[in-house]
Every structure is written in structure tokens, then in C-alpha cells.
Amino acid sequence: MTTSPPPPFDPRDPLGLDDLLGDEDRAVRETVRRWAQTRVAPNIAQWYESGELPEVRELARELGSIGALGMQLEGYGCAGASAVQYGLACLELEAADSGIRSLVSVQGSLAMYAVHRFGSEEQKQQWLPSMASGETIGCFGLTEPDHGSDPAGMRTRAKRDGSDWILTGRKMWITNGSVAGVAVVWARTEEGIRGFVVPTGSPGFSAPEIKHKWSLRASVTSELVLDDVRLPEDAVLPGVVGLRGPLSCLSHARYGIVWGSMGAARSCFEAALEYSTTREQFGRPIGGFQLTQAKLADMAVELHKGILLAHHLGSRMDAGRLRPEQISFGKLNNVREAIEICRTARTILGANGISLEYPVMRHATNLESVLTYEGTAEMHQLVLGKALTGLDAFR
């Protein structure tokens, strides 16, 4: 039993969660944090205000150079990082902006993961190295204008024409769509739902960008239009038939959100904590008032509980023991709490909380999208409800 005194209390790590990390974990975190603070932080308010991500291709190449794209995958130029390391990267990226984490998540956890897990060796060799380097950007086409939470109702269809496939349909709210070089598109066939690797230069494929968003403004969001897109036989992902394919991809993306949402929450908490020590009212810093301290304490508790939950889920994923229901547990809790932390931070900052000089309102509006994409809060509640009771309430 040691008799040495505990380390000093760290307001930014009150539970000492850094003790859970190894040297390699910290190195990954610092690499991504340094890139985000250097490359994104000075520009993000302008990008958000203008509603565009003007340097997306350059950013993708830079992210590839630090190993952040498809970083959990093995081979083909991918980093082969642990689940915890990928989570730490997501946290740091979303502390900069949810749109940047979405770029990485869609590239790696959706498009690259689909090819890596379900693709042929030829498909992997053709696409994964350039996607890992950021030279090729990918997107993932599942959600449709009339089918979000119920992907089984998709209307996009693929039919055989000799040895070719003909794809027809529309996908909606697709991150990276208009800048992607390749799209993984899920479509209904006579055999069941199949995934297709679609070069975006294919005749009949278009990806008009969606404008006038008030959330995820520093992110490229598009519609995918497939107007009799002809693809060769080998465009289909051979490794899966049915919804198990896209849903397994979504599980990996949701896992990244469990961590990423805590990055947005951390950014808002730190902004509120700093502001509370410098903003004076009634002759003293507002951080000296009981109500403000109560808010800060509650924010810190939920923030670090969420990070602890994310780390636990990451450890289970690394051990091969993480279930989809547990990912739903994490996404439901962490996104919901992150939104509350952002809203509370806004009250501490007062009117300054709505200014882009501070990150709070930007994160709050972004998280409104994070709450509903990759499964709405209601869907994750029902996933957990079914797991708890054994009764299916979806239908």
C-alpha cells in the first residue's frame, strides 16, 4: 500500500482518466489534437459562418498523412489502431467541430469499413490505399428521402442487365457526397439488400450539395441521385446480403460518436470554465457564485462519466466483446448529455454564448444533427428496450 500523496486535482481531468491510457494512446491523441488545433481551430468559425468546408480535399489528405482515415483497419495503408485510439481521435476531432469528425467517420467507419469487411480483394486493393491517404474521399449511401430510421423500406433498386447492374434511386443527407470519388451505395435487389462500390464519375450519378443548413455547416452534405447507373458485375460487395451489412458499418460509426460527442462537450465545458473565472458581475468573477459552480460541477460530472463510458466501450471493442446494444447505450447517453452540457455552457456565457467568437453555439447546433444521425435517440431507446425486455417495440 502506497503512502505517497495523490497527484494534484486537475480541473480538466478530475477523475484522472489519463491513467487509463498508455503511451501510444496519448501519442495518438496528441497527434490528432495538435492537427485539429493548428489546422481547424483558427478557421472553423469562418467556415461555419460561410456554410462551407472549402479545403475539404486538402484536409482529407492531411488527415490521411497523420493516419486518421480508416485508422482501425488493418493493411492497405491503414494504421491498424486500437478502438480506444480511434475513439480518442474522434474526441479530439469533434472538439474542433462535428463536421470534421463526420468527414473522418464517414470515410473510415462507413465507406472504408464496408469495403474492408465485405469487399473483394480487388475492391480493397483498388480503393482502400487511396482512401487511407485521403487522395480519394468516400461516402456512404443508405438514408433516403423517405426512409431514415427504417432502412429496410429503401426504394433504391439494382437490377441485373446481362452481366451488369443498373442502379436507380436517391439517397439523402450524405456526408462527403459531392466531393467523393467513390460511393458505397446500398440498394434492394432480387437477392436482398446489397452494397455497391460506385465510382462517382459513372454516367447517371450526381451528388447535388444540400445548402441552407443551420447545423453541420462546416461539412459537405449532399443528395445522391442514381439515374440508371450501369455498373459491372464486380461492383457489388460480395461479402454480405441483407441489412446486416450497412448496420454493422453504422455500429462502427456510432461508436465514434460516443467519443466524438464528448469532444464537443469538452470544448464547451472548457470555454465555460475559463469564462467563469474572467467574467465579472457584481464585483467578482461569476465562477465564484454558487449557481455557476453548481452548473460547472454538473457539467464536469456528466462529461467525465461520458468519457469513462466511451473508454469502457472501446476496451470491450478491442477485446471483441462489444455488442450493438452497448453502442446504442453509449450514443444515447453521451449525445444527450453533450447537448445538455452545451446548453448549460451557453447560460454561463450569457449573450456571448451565441457568438462565433466562442465554440458553444456552434457545437450545440451541430449536436442537434449528431442526436439524430446514425440512429435517432428514440431508435436507440427502443434498441435498449428490446434488449432489456426481450420484446420488439419497433413494429
Description:
The chain has helices at residues 23-40, 44-50, 56-65, 83-96, 98-118, 121-133, 244-278, 290-318, 324-349, 360-372, 377-389; strands spanning 138-141, 157-161, 164-175, 182-189, 192-199, 205-206, 221-231, 280-281, 284-285. The N and C termini lie far apart (56 Å). Helix 1 (23-40) packs parallel to helix 4, helix 7 runs antiparallel to helix 10 (360-372) and helix 9 (324-349) packs across helix 11 (377-389). The protein folds into 3 domains: 17-133, Orthogonal Bundle (Butyryl-Coa Dehydrogenase, subunit A, domain 1); 138-241, Butyryl-CoA Dehydrogenase, subunit A, domain 2 (Beta Barrel); 245-389, Butyryl-CoA Dehydrogenase, subunit A, domain 3 (Up-down Bundle). The chain contains 11 helices and 9 strands. It is α+β, with helices and mostly antiparallel strands and 395 residues long. The strands form 3 sheets. The chain has a 4-stranded antiparallel beta sheet with strand order 2-3-7-6, covered by helices on one side.
How is the biggest beta sheet arranged?
4 strands, antiparallel
Low-confidence stretches: none
Question: Structural class, from secondary structure content?
Answer: alpha+beta
Give the CATH architecture of the largest domain.
Answer: Up-down Bundle
Query: For the residues shown, what is the average pLDDT?
Result: 95
Strand content: 5-15%
* CATH evolutionary superfamily of the largest domain: Butyryl-CoA Dehydrogenase, subunit A, domain 3
The end-to-end span amounts to 56 Å
Q: Per the principal axes of the C-alpha atoms, what is the gross shape?
A: globular
For this structure, what is the CATH class of the largest domain?
Answer: Mainly Alpha
Strand order, sheet with most strands:
2-3-7-6
Radius of gyration, whole Å: 22 Å
Cofactor: FAD
Domain Acyl-CoA oxidase/dehydrogenase middle: 139-229
Keywords: FAD, Flavoprotein, Oxidoreductase, Transit peptide
InterPro entries: Acyl-CoA_Oxase/DH_mid-dom, Acyl-CoA_Oxase/DH_mid-dom_sf, AcylCo_DH-like_C, AcylCo_DH/oxidase_C, AcylCoA_DH/ox_N, AcylCoA_DH/ox_N_sf, AcylCoA_DH/oxidase_NM_dom_sf, Glutaryl-CoA_DH_mitochondrial
